[in-house]
Every structure is written in structure tokens, then in C-alpha cells.
Amino acid sequence: MLKEKPKVPRKSPSQPRRQPSHRIETFENRNPDRNYLIEFACPEFTCLCPMTGQPDFATIRIRYVPGRRCVELKSLKLYLWGFRNRGIFHEDGVNSIADHLRNTLEPRYLQVCGDFMIRGGIHTKVEVSWGTPPGPHSLNP
Fold it and tell me: Hey, which residues are catalytic here?
């Protein structure tokens, strides 16, 4: 008769594994009277083509001048990760991200750009902006 191996308890990670989220967390802007530009790039954005179910890859670029709130980066990462298994057209995805950021942050200016990898010989780039873009003299040094 075979002897059963003793079960070794699995080590639990020091922090629980985070899951994709549909929520963006914020923190208070400590310089709300100052105009300054914040830029993010997420070069590993993935969603699914709603027609074929095939993955689409993109770099999502976000630029904004904050109002009273700033986006917390880990929550933004988990929010963008939430698109990974979602069937959505490029245009809808970028607009959805922009709408969510605009409603959550209430920024003075916001721009979201999705630069999607070539699929079927076509390169797609979608840009959404809201508010007045900051000029070189409108930002505080």
C-alpha cells in the first residue's frame, strides 16, 4: 500500500492577491490652487474584441490637471486590468475610461488616449479630451 505524503501547508502571501476592479480610488489634492499636469502610461492594457473574442492590446495614456482629487495609482491599475476579459470596442473602451475618470476626479482638464496594436492591418488610436488643454503658461513652475 502506498503511503500518503504528508500535506505541507501552503504559505499564505503577505498580501492577498488583488483582483480587477471597477472602482477608481482617489486622494485629496494637496495643491488644489495650482495647475499642474499629471501623466500616466499603461503599456499593458488588454481588452477583448466584441466581434471575435480575440485580445486587443494597447497603451493607454492619461493626462490630467487635477481639481480637488487625484487618482490613486494601484486602483487605476486594477481598474484598467478589469478590461482584460471584457468585450468592448476600442472607441467605447477609451470613452468609458475617460467618463469614469472625469466623474470620479472632476479634473480641470482630462485627456485619455488609447493607442491599439495593429489588428487586421489597421492601427487604431482613440483620443478623448475634456476641458481646456493647459498651455505652457497656464501651468505653475
Answer: 49, 56
Q: Which residues pair with 65 in a beta bridge?
A: 109
**What is the distance of C-alpha 104 from the center of its chain?**
13
pLDDT digit of tens for each residue in the chain (141 aa)? 556 655 555 555 555 556 777 889 999 999 999 999 999 999 999 999 999 999 999 999 999 999 999 999 999 999 999 999 999 999 999 999 999 999 999 999 999 999 999 988 999 999 999 998 887 666 665
Report yes or no on whether pTM surpasses 0.70.
yes
Is 48 a domain residue? Answer: yes
Helices (H), the chain: 73-81, 90-105
Supply the CATH number for residue 33's domain: 3.30.1130.10
- What range defines the domain where residue 36 resides? 26-131
